[in-house]
Amino acid sequence: MLSQETLDAYRRMTPGERLAITLGMMRENTPYLLAGRADVVDRRFELIRRENDLRNARILAALAAMKATEATGDE
């Protein structure tokens, strides 16, 4: 969990500053993501794909539920 001070600092940043931090972290950590035997790297990427698919499914379900609520007028 991030401290309140860190969260406040992130909120004060411009989108460009946040993007620069994100790209820097990606650049620094990519070698570790690709390190290891081929089967280990493949499993690592499969886990990332599964987590992304689950996250996307949850977002789509929430959007569908929101759309259904708007269509019926229930809130």
The secondary-structure element order is: HHH
User: How many helices?
Assistant: 3
Alpha carbon gap, first and last residue: 31 Å
Uncertain stretches: none
Describe this structure in words.
The structure is a single chain. The chain has 75 residues and is mostly helical. 84% of the residues lie in helices and 0% in strands. The chain contains 3 helices and no strands. The chain has helices at 4-12, 15-33, 38-72. The longest helix is centred in the C-terminal third of the chain and has 35 residues, at 38-72. It is flat and about 50 Å long. The two termini are 31 Å apart.
Question: Which keywords apply here?
Answer:
75 residues; mainly alpha; 84% helix
